[in-house]
Amino acid sequence: MSKIKHTSETPATHWLRQQKIPFGEHPYDYVDHGGAREAASQLGVPLHQVAKTLIMEDEQARPLVVLMHGDCEVSTKNLARQTGAKKIAPCSPDTAQRHSGYQVGGTSPFATRKRMPVWVEAGLLDYDTVYLNGGRRGYLISVASSVLSGALGAKPVTVALGDEGQAPGA
C-alpha cells in the first residue's frame, strides 16, 4: 500500500484493507461537475484508465453498478441486452446515494451500502492498474485491474460509447 499523504479512511479503503488488497491513494482538488476528466487531468493519468462508478437500475428498480472508462458513456441498450435486463437507466442522484451509501461524485464500487451486481467495461481490464473513486469526492485510488473481476466480482461487458455516441474506434 502506498501512502503519499494521510487520507482518512472510507468504507471502500477499510474494505480493501480488510481484504489485504494493495491500493494507491490519489487525492486531488474536487471540482463540481469535473468528474473523471478533472481527476485524470490533476493526477496526470490517462482518462481512459480512470473508471467512473455509475449506479443504475433495471426495469424492476433493482440497482447495479457499472464501471466505465472516464472518457466514454454507457450504452444502456447494450448493457440491458448483455445483462439480461429489459431496460437499464441511470438512477437519480438521491437514489444512487441511497443504494451506494456514497455521495454522488464520490461513489466507489467497494463496500456499497446495498449489495449490487457490478459490471465492468471489458477494456478497463486490459490495464494493469485502474484508477477509481475511493469513496469521497476528490479522492481516487489505484488498484490492479484483476481486483475488479476477482475480489469485487465484476463481470465484463462491452457497452462503451465514445464522445460521438459510437463505440470507441467505430
Automatic annotation (TrEMBL):
What domain of life?
Bacteria
What PANTHER family is this protein classified in? Answer: CYS-TRNA(PRO)_CYS-TRNA(CYS) DEACYLASE YBAK (PTHR30411:SF0), CYTOPLASMIC PROTEIN (PTHR30411)
Residues in YbaK/aminoacyl-tRNA synthetase-associated domain copies: 36-145
Sorted alphabetically, which CDD domains does this protein's record hold? YbaK_deacylase
Keywords, A to Z, come to:
Lyase, Protein biosynthesis
Tell me the enzyme class: lyase
Put simply, this protein is called Cys-tRNA(Pro)/Cys-tRNA(Cys) deacylase
Q: Which family does it belong to?
A: Belongs to the prolyl-tRNA editing family. YbaK/EbsC subfamily.
Name the EC number(s): 4.2.-.-
InterPro entries the UniProt entry points to: Prolyl-tRNA_editing_YbaK/EbsC, YbaK/aa-tRNA-synt-asso_dom_sf, YbaK/aa-tRNA-synth-assoc-dom
Keyword Kinase appears in the UniProt entry? no
Q: Say if the entry is tagged with keyword Protein biosynthesis.
A: yes
